């Protein structure tokens, strides 16, 4: 019976890397290993075939001979050897452990480090500061690497020793029947080393609590909810791990004049009855100075006026927003008798003109009259 091509057996290309070959064999071994398929002759045959292919293609010398001469080039070098349970020293359990070793960091593991925690700082800004941008200094409580022991946790002048339980791996292998899994070493808790004499300043932790001052560059145009990330300014990592990040959360305080929506600013501008009726000019504020608002004759309350380019420059780029002014006609209060008399005379003169002076009011009254007539009122 002719032998199948080894690359075909493993399901890989002829340019497959050593990692690809090993991965393909593990997959087939997990599927066809005799320990998982007792009394299954077909599975045994496929396992033998896969192991033979792996033994040749994972060895650079044998693979070179196979690529050049085919099966004849490796027939004298051993082919498949050993019993159906052979794979290293532990049979199927080693395959299982090898697979999980890849997932959790490789066989032997190596000592585990832990990234430091991210921190958050709430930064309150005025609208003017948020729109213009600002450099601010903040103080944050955090953990930093111990300056006395250099983060090792060991007494200055000493060093951590290799853990005698895991021999520096940080993990130990537990085997139950066919299954072999790795878990964190109970003695060193994954560090791979133990401290015989702890640093008196950090008590063996390798980190200290302290406050530090940082400079934060707030870009122009930020708004409530925006975050500024300071990489590596969070808490120090454990066992030499990287530091976390600091996130500065922006909150813009309410403004007495302006409200912001995206890149536009809004403000309400009260105008007198006379200005609304006769028109005129008035100064209104912007975040960069004063501008003149021209109020046309007969302006009604609620009228919107747009000041182009007087809003906010967006933080992520783009055109300037606008300032939108909403005028509110203010009703006079606290009138004296003479002012009241003048208004009565003025109202009488308006009534004489009918719809000419008050088109909206006249139209509304006509609609009300028609409604009452339809209702029979």
TrEMBL record:
Source superkingdom: Bacteria
Keyword annotations of the record: Chaperone, Cytoplasm, DNA replication, Metal-binding, Repeat, Stress response, Zinc, Zinc-finger
Zinc finger CR-type: from-to: 133-211
Record note on cofactor: Binds 2 Zn(2+) ions per monomer.
Cellular compartment(s): Cytoplasm
Keyword Zinc-finger: yes
Cofactor entry: Zn(2+)
Positions with a binding annotation for Zn(2+) 2: 163, 166, 185, 188
Basic and acidic residues bias spans: 224-238
GO cellular component term of the entry, any: cytoplasm
Comment text on domains: The J domain is necessary and sufficient to stimulate DnaK ATPase activity. Zinc center 1 plays an important role in the autonomous, DnaK-independent chaperone activity of DnaJ. Zinc center 2 is essential for interaction with DnaK and for DnaJ activity.
Name of the protein in its database record: Chaperone protein DnaJ
Gene it is expressed from: dnaJ
């Amino acid at each position: 019976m002719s032998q199948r091509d080894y690359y075909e057996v493993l399901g890989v290309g002829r340019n497959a890397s050593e990692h690809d070959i090993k991965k393909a064999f593990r997959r087939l071994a997990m599927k066809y290993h005799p320990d998982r398929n007792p009394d299954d002759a077909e599975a045994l045959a496929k396992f033998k075939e896969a192991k033979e292919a792996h033994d040749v293609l994972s060895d650079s010398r044998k693979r070179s001979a196979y690529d050049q001469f085919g099966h004849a080039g490796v027939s004298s070098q051993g082919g498949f050897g050993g019993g159906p349970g052979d794979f290293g020293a532990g049979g199927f359990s080693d395959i299982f452990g090898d697979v999980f070793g890849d997932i959790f960091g490789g066989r032997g593991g190596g000592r585990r480090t832990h990234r430091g925690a991210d921190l958050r700082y709430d930064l309150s800004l005025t609208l003017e500061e948020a729109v213009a941008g600002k450099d601010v200094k903040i103080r944050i409580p955090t953990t930093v690497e111990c300056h006395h022991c250099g983060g090792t946790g060991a007494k200055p002048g000493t060093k951590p020793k290799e853990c005698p339980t895991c021999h520096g791996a940080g993990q130990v292998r537990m085997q139950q029947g066919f299954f072999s899994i790795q878990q964190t070493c109970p003695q060193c808790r994954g560090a791979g080393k133990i401290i015989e004499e702890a640093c008196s300043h950090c008590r063996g932790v390798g980190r200290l609590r302290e406050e530090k001052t940082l400079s934060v560059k707030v870009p122009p145009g930020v708004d409530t909810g925006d975050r500024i990330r300071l990489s590596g300014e969070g808490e120090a990592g454990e066992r030499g791990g990287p530091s976390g990040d600091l996130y500065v959360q922006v909150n813009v305080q309410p403004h007495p004049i302006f409200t912001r929506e995206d890149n536009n600013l809004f403000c309400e501008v009260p105008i007198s009855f006379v200005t609304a009726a006769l028109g005129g000019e008035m100064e209104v504020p912007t975040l960069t100075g004063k501008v003149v608002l021209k109020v046309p004759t007969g302006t009604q309350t609620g009228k919107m006026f747009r000041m182009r380019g007087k809003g906010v420059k967006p933080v992520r780029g783009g055109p300037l927003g606008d300032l939108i002014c909403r005028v509110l006609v203010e009703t006079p209060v606290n009138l004296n008798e003479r002012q009241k008399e003048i208004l009565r005379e003025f109202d009488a003169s308006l009534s004489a003109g009918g719809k000419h002076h008050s088109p909206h009011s006249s139209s509304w009254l006509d609609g009300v009259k028609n409604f009452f007539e339809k209702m029979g009122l």
